[in-house]
Amino acid sequence: MRDPEEKILTIKAMAAVVESLHRDGKRVCLCHGEFDLVHPGHIMHLRAARQKGDALVVTITPDRFVVKGPGRPVFNEALRARTLAALECVDFVAINDRETAVETIRSIKPRIYVKGSEYRSIDADITGRIAAEKEAVESVGGELQFTDEETFSASTLANRHYGIYPPDTAKFLKEFRARYDPEEIIRSLESLEDLRVLVVGEAIIDEYHYVSTMGKSSKEPILTTRFEWGESFAGGALATANHVAGFCPNVDLITCLGARASQEEFVRSRLKPTVKPKFFFRQDAETIVKRRFVEKDFLNKIFEICLLNDSPLDPALTREICGYLEAMLDTYDLVVVADFGHGMIGARMVGTLCDRARFLAVNTQRNSANLGFNLITKYPRADYVCIDEPEIRLAAHDRVGSLEELVLAVSKSLSCQLVTITLGRRGAITYRDREGYHDIPVLSTEVVDTVGAGDAVLAITAPCAARGFAADLVGFIGNSAGALAVKIVGNRSSVEPVTLYKFMRSMLK
Asked: 158-192 b/e with 16+ CB inside 10 Å = b?
């Protein structure tokens, strides 16, 4: 038997080997998957796949693209590759270099691409990936085939038998599974598509300047860094609108850009096609930019520069925006306010939003520019509030009191139907008068970047709140969205429905 270590190749090397085998008249089969917790179902599937051709090659999803909840993958990509390479029926193994198998199929060009019987119904695949993989293999002269072996779920095995979750998370998921079926949750989220949504708030451009540390300056007591590269993201209300648009295609956006340096072309290019923006322009400012200097290896933020004018809007511009809102608000099922406290949303605009919105979802964010001044209590009414614990404590002027009592007080003062309080590593709590409080544990163990996570939670839970989802379900969906968002650098991408559905389905198996 060949040494298992010799079976592990790069994708490029595997493509060359497969090409050589084809020249020798061999039929090569390809299987692709995560193959975490290799179990009898995997082995029977791989053996059956090997029998369809003369050689079997396997590619595995790299760790960074495994979206299965905390503690997953149980085994890292190197261990998973070595496990598969140890199987006699597997000829070669490679760790994929992309999120999906589509480009890999086109590179490797197998004669047969093999999936398990659970993927036979292509129309039932919510990810759309099986159809894309079928198209890819046929484009290189191959075909999609299926095995008919008994199937098992690695996620179910991990969730029920391997103790991969902390005790409070395991207890919560066990009780939650008894109340909710993941397919019903997905259908409920899909039902949000007919909501017409307006997002209101400041446009922010987040710049990340990646640097390497050079050390202390020889002449000054300062840290010196070398610029490596940079990227810019659509943040603030722009990010909120992009998150919402994945679940509710009819999204309008009202925001302010600066007249002096609007960056309008960049902003438009970063909004999803289904987001329809209405820009108002401040003559006394440029578009808000938050420029962060980030250590490139570990993504530690070193320093931040804000380019903003956070004074109140000119009264004439306020009248213009409020007039536009007054004419439009009753046409929306949901208004999501992402209030970063940078001058756009003043008292008059708050009054207009509170008076006219059918369903009003609000987040008021604290940051270094407005700490203690941008409080949820500036809104006399909101149907849904989504803020973090420091924000509600600032609003209540209470650092140590019972959080449940603070939530109750805010809910009553705003006549609020539903409240979500995010608690960082402690998860979140949700509250609705007729349902009481629900503690939702954190559903993430890996945190890449917390910037934008709160925007994702607000954006994805607000339509759920507007549709009347149960408070514990809103909390679970919100924490799932947050778990995915903290694995994204800045607002480089949005939390998309398919990714969220896969995450929740895995957690609840």
From this structure: bbeeeebbeeebeebbeebeeebebeebbebbeeb
For residue 161, name the pLDDT band (cuts at 50, 70, 90). Answer: very low
Rounded CA-CA distance 367/235 in Å is 14
Tokens of 39: 């179990």
Quote the strand ranges of 374-417, DSSP E: 384-388
Residue 60 has pLDDT above 80, yes or no: yes
Q: Cα separations (Å) of 340 from 7, 80, 103, 358, 371? A: 53, 44, 40, 22, 11
Q: How far is CA 170 from CA 167, 222, 231, 272, 486, in A?
A: 5, 47, 38, 36, 21
Mean pLDDT of 231-244: 97
The residues, ordered by sequence, that sit 6+ positions from 227 with a Cβ below 8 Å of its Cβ are 209, 210, 211
Confirm if 339 and 203 have CB atoms less than 8 A apart: no
Q: How many CA atoms lie within 13 A of 262 on its CB side?
A: 12
Strand partners of residue 276:
252
Closest CA to 169 of 444, 454, 432, 436: 444
Q: Pick the residue with more confidence: 361 or 67? A: 361
User: Cα separation of 355 and 373, whole Å?
Assistant: 22
Residue % of the chain over a pLDDT of 90:
77
pLDDT, average across residues 287-308: 94
Task: Of 82-91, 154-163, 329-338, 448-457, give the range with the top mean pLDDT.
Answer: 329-338
Phi/psi for 269 (5° steps) reads -70, -20
Q: Which is nearest to 497 in space by CA: 475, 480, 509?
A: 480
Gap between the Cα atoms of 293 and 225, Å rounded: 9
Tell how strand 55-60 and strand 428-432 pair up.
unpaired
Averaged pLDDT, 409-426:
94
Task: Name the E strands within 272-332.
Answer: 275-282, 288-295, 301-307
**What is the arithmetic mean of pLDDT over 471-486?**
96
The Cα–Cα gap between 344 and 351 comes to 13
Q: Which residue is listed with tokens 């009264």?
A: 315
For residues 509 and 159, the answer to whether their CB atoms sit within 8 Å is yes
Question: Residue 124: what pLDDT?
Answer: 65
Nearest to 475 by CA among 463, 461, 495: 461
Q: What percent of the chain is predicted at pLDDT more than 70?
A: 95
Alpha helices of 59-128 — where are they, by DSSP H?
77-85, 102-108
